[in-house]
C-alpha cells in the first residue's frame, strides 16, 4: 500500500487559523475502474501542549470555556505554533506565561515528549507535547478578550483520576498526558515515577 496521489488542490473556505481544502486524489496504482475522489481537509498550523510542573511536583492545568462543547474543560496550556515564534518550544513557553502567569525558573528543563497527528482523516497538522519545569507563578495571566481561564495545580494521581471519572476529557490533552506517563513507564508506582520525573530538573536549594 502507498499513499494516494493528489491531482488537484484548492482552498474551499479560508478562516483565521484554519482553511478547508479540497483535494482531488487517486490511488497510487489505480485500476481501470478506480476513479479520483474529492476529500475535504482542515489545514492548520501545528499545535502545542505544554505540561508545566512546579517545584513541588504539581502539574499546572487550565480550566476554560470551549464553544465547541459549550462547556468548561480541563486542559494543559496550549496554542497554535506561531511562525513568528520560530518553533513549538517558544510557542509553548509563551502560551504558558500568557494563560497562567507561570514561568520556568532559571535553568529549568524543557523536554519534547512526542508528536502526534490530531486527526489524520481530516487534518494535516501535528500536535507537539512538551514538558517544562520547575515553573512558578510570577504574574497574572495575560488573556485575550475572548479568553476566560483559571490555572490550577494537580498531582499526576489527581489528573489520572480526573481522566477516569470524565473530568479530564480533552483528547489532545489526554494524548500529552499519555506521552508523559510513557516517558516514565517501568516505574513501580506513581510516587516512584514522580521521583524519576523530578530528577530531570535541577535541584532547588
Secondary structure layout plus pairing:
Blueprint: E1 5-15, E2 18-26, E3 37-44, E4 47-54, E5 59-66, E6 71-75, E7 78-80, H1 88-100, E8 102-116, E9 127-137, E10 149-154, H2 156-164, H3 171-183, H4 190-198
Parallel strand pairs: 4-9
Antiparallel strand pairs: 1-2, 2-3, 4-7, 5-6, 5-10, 8-9
- Spatial strand arrangement across the major sheet: 7-4-9-8
Amino- and carboxy-terminal Cα gap? 56 Å
Give a short account of the largest sheet: 4 strands, mixed
Considering DSSP H and I runs of 4 or more, what fraction of the residues is helical? 10-25%
> Looking at the chains present, what oligomeric state does this protein adopt?
single chain
| Beta strand count | 10
The rounded Rg comes to: 20 Å
CATH class of the largest domain: Alpha Beta
Which spans of ≥5 residues are poorly predicted at pLDDT below 50? none
Beta content comes to: 35-45%
Query: In the CATH classification, which architecture of the largest domain applies?
Result: Alpha-Beta Complex
Name the CATH homologous superfamily of the largest domain.
Nucleoside Triphosphate Pyrophosphohydrolase
Number of helical elements: 4
What is the H/E order? EEEEEEEHEEEHHH
- Please name the CATH topology of the largest domain: Nucleoside Triphosphate Pyrophosphohydrolase
The figure for the number of domains is 2
Integer average pLDDT: 90
Record keyword descriptors for this entry.
205 residues, 4 helices, 2 domains, Nucleoside Triphosphate Pyrophosphohydrolase, alpha+beta
Amino acid at each position: 500500500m502507498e499513499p494516494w496521489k493528489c491531482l488537484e488542490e484548492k482552498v474551499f473556505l479560508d478562516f483565521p487559523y484554519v482553511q478547508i481544502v479540497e483535494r482531488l486524489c487517486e490511488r497510487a496504482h489505480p485500476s481501470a475502474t478506480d476513479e479520483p475522489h474529492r476529500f475535504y481537509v482542515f489545514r492548520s498550523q501545528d499545535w502545542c501542549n505544554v505540561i508545566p510542573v512546579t517545584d513541588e511536583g504539581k502539574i499546572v492545568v487550565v480550566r476554560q470555556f470551549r464553544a465547541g462543547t459549550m462547556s468548561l474543560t480541563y486542559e494543559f496550556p496550549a496554542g497554535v505554533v506561531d511562525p513568528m515564534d520560530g518553533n513549538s518550544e517558544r510557542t509553548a513557553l509563551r502560551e504558558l506565561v500568557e494563560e497562567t502567569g507561570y514561568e520556568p525558573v532559571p535553568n529549568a528543563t524543557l523536554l519534547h515528549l512526542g508528536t502526534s497527528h490530531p486527526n489524520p482523516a481530516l487534518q494535516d497538522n501535528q500536535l507537539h507535547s512538551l514538558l517544562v519545569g520547575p515553573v512558578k507563578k510570577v504574574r497574572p495571566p495575560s488573556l485575550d478578550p475572548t479568553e476566560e481561564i483559571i490555572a490550577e495545580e494537580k498531582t499526576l494521581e489527581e489528573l489520572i483520576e480526573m481522566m477516569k471519572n470524565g473530568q479530564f476529557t480533552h483528547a489532545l490533552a489526554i494524548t500529552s498526558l499519555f506521552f508523559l506517563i510513557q516517558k516514565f513507564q517501568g516505574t513501580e508506582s506513581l510516587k516512584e515515577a514522580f521521583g524519576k520525573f523530578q530528577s530531570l530538573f535541577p535541584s532547588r536549594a
